[in-house]
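Hi all, posting the design record for the shared folder.

TITLE: backbone redesign
STEP: 1 of 1
STRUCTURE INPUT:
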């Protein structure tokens, strides 16, 4: 995303806090949805061109969009991105809206990566349980033991807070290669206070919004 597009997305995150209807796109959220859709259309079209893939050869494209609000306790999760618009722009079938049905039924709708993690674990061809940690906007963990046992949940803050901190303090969108973090020291007081958050004492299944640990 360009700096201007990032600003639109950040303003959309602020406005999304007031949403109660997952399909509503008031104010800057409508513009942010267009930004997300156009960026994905450009990326997908470029990928297809560079690999000489015709639209007719594509079985399906999974389009998650950008999460702007995740409140499973309120049975609400909102991802912006126009799947129909992406399908029209690229001429391919698009699958989308991966979280909403689970959240509406009382589930967490997150994390999404455990099934992929299980495929990776099988490729390792090793005995015993495997644990994978994914640091996305928030962090999550997947515990895999054979074909039957698959346990996963969010575990705490991730790159979203780091990116917010870098933008506020250094004017950079993220900490490239972790160079800034490598030069710093842990904030023991913040860590101690954060570990008192009730999220850590709650059993899985559980999930987080990107701003649950923001201050």
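Okay, here is what came back for every position:
SEQUENCE:
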């Amino acid at each position: 995303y360009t700096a201007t597009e990032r600003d639109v997305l950040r303003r959309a995150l602020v406005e999304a806090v007031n949403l109660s209807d997952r399909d509503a796109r008031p104010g800057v959220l409508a513009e942010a949805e267009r930004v997300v859709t156009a960026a994905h259309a450009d990326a997908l079209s470029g990928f297809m061109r560079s690999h000489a893939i015709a639209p007719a050869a594509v079985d399906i494209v999974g389009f998650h969009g950008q999460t702007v609000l995740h409140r499973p306790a309120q049975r609400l999760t909102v991802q912006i991105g126009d799947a129909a618009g992406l399908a029209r722009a690229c001429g391919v079938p698009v699958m989308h809206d991966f979280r909403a049905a689970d959240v509406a039924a009382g589930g967490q709708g997150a994390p999404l990566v455990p099934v992929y993690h299980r495929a990776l674990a099988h490729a390792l061809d090793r005995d015993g349980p495997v644990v994978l940690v994914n640091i996305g906007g928030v962090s999550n963990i997947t515990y895999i033991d054979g074909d039957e046992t698959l346990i996963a949940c969010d575990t705490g803050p991730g790159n979203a807070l780091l990116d917010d901190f870098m933008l506020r303090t250094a004017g950079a969108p993220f900490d490239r290669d972790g160079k800034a973090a490598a030069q710093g020291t842990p904030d023991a007081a913040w860590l101690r206070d954060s570990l008192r958050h009730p999220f850590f004492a709650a059993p899985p299944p559980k999930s987080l919004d990107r701003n649950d640990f923001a201050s």
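COMMENT: Residues 28-50 form the longest helix (23 residues).
Let me know if anyone wants the other runs.
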